Amino acid sequence: MTTSGCAAGDDDGVAADGKVHIEMWHGQTDIAKKALEKLVADFEKSHPDIRVGLGGGVLADAMLQKVTAGLAAGSYPDIAYIFGSDLASIAVSPQVVDLTDTVRSASTPWSNYWAPARDAVTVDGKVRAAPALLDSLAVVCNKELFRQAGLPLPKAGWTWQDFQDTAKKLTDEGRGQFGTGWPGAGDEDTVWRLWPMVWDLGGDVVDPSGKKIGFADSGVRALEVVDALARDKSVYIDPKPGSEQMYQVFMSGRMGMVLTGPWQLPDIQQAKVDYHVVPLPSFSGRPVTISGPDTWTVFNNGSAREKAARTFVSWLMQPEQDVVWDVEAGSLPLSRRTESMPDWQEKTTGTEGLAVFTKALETARVRPVHQAYPQVSKAVGEAVVSVLLRRSTPTKAMRACADTANPALALPR
Predict the structure, then answer these.
(1) pLDDT per position as a tens digit, 195-224
(2) Which bin fits 117, alpha (ψ -120 to 50), beta or left (φ > 0)?
């Protein structure tokens, strides 16, 4: 195996025996890491001239920083797991490979992949990464708490007002029971739950000019939902990154509803929570949600290694491998072909609510792949937290958000 971070162009990755060695910084742990190791072993059996080293030494949420430092030092991997919200920032590097021809000449037609998977890896009309993980947001409900409160389980087409009213009725301050929860660290986990509301109200993250935010008005209305939850004391605010405390409150039977993705279902099942999954509420009654795909980004370390890396990520995306990753690591299918495979159908049949998350992909949208998105997200995160903690009103918080985000968007790119 190659060592982590071989310098670009050292030997083009071709060993004396003719095998090409590439390095993947994956950022995965536990079940996902084991699934990836299994896939690499299968790949190497069918591609005896390529060897894939799994390394990186950091979790996915620290990958951007590590890769950025590696690019600056001239020592970087052939493939790295990059969050979709970070792709535009890293894609400015000339070392990031354009995968447009690779994905469009693969055996599965590019149009067969879900729109969120395609949109999340496309920067200025070019495919700058391969989709790695696909998800969507929905609401998971604790059936027992609904029964205790005498409330019917929500159905598709419900509204944010329904959500607010239900959360209030599920809250029992004396028992330490909350109607719902919201991440309160001000990070992307805090932010991305707000975008479906903005889109539903006709807003967008960036306005058509590309020079300012597109949610100055719709963002206020979205924050009013957050404000109502905080005012009613029906929301558990998790102050730590990762939202682990929020999920622990839900899985301990002290939270009625949680906005989450399919990744959380195994833990909820293990906690033996009797649960129900329903699409996100909306203002309009139309289905709207968000998908936050992550990526396998390929870097140029010479022609032989680049070709091998392209071969590997293209192989990973195909249904036969994708379904292994989906079933074992918790992703939704990247393509409709994967969705139709027997292994995924069996997984869906045996997992309560999984079909709701998959169906949501039909109308899901993704955050813009924009270099200034991290600055916009930071400003929105601060706005959400200020409203959650009752330190600001929705109007004032959104005004402060615009004052920070608009200058970042106005900078020339």
Answers:
(1) 999 999 999 999 998 899 999 999 999 999
(2) alpha
- The pTM of this model reads 0.91
> Residue 176, Cβ neighbours under 10 Å: how many?
11
**Percentage of the chain lying above the pLDDT 90 cut:** 88
The residue whose two tokens read 């590590």 is 66
Binning pLDDT at 50, 70 and 90, where does residue 376 land?
very high
Sign of CA dihedral 16, 19, 25, 28: negative
Report the C-alpha dihedral over residues 346, 350, 352, 356, rounded to 10 degrees: 0
Q: What's the DSSP call for residue 407?
A: H
Cα–Cα nearest to 138, from 261, 28, 36, 226: 261
Kindly state which CATH superfamily the domain 20-134+293-365 is placed in.
Periplasmic binding protein-like II (3.40.190.10)
CA dist 338 and 235 (Å) reads 37
Could you count the other beta carbons within 10 Å of the beta carbon of residue 340?
Answer: 12
- Round the average pLDDT of the chain to a whole number and report it: 93
CATH number belonging to domain 138-290+372-410: 3.40.190.10
Give the 3-state DSSP-derived string for 202-248, with helices as H, strands as E and coil as C: CCEEECCCCCCEECCCHHHHHHHHHHHHHHCCCEEEECCCCCHHHHH
Domain ranges of the chain: 20-134+293-365, 138-290+372-410
Q: Which residues are CB-neighbours of 142 under 8 A, at least 6 positions away?
A: 250, 253, 255, 256, 257, 273, 274, 275
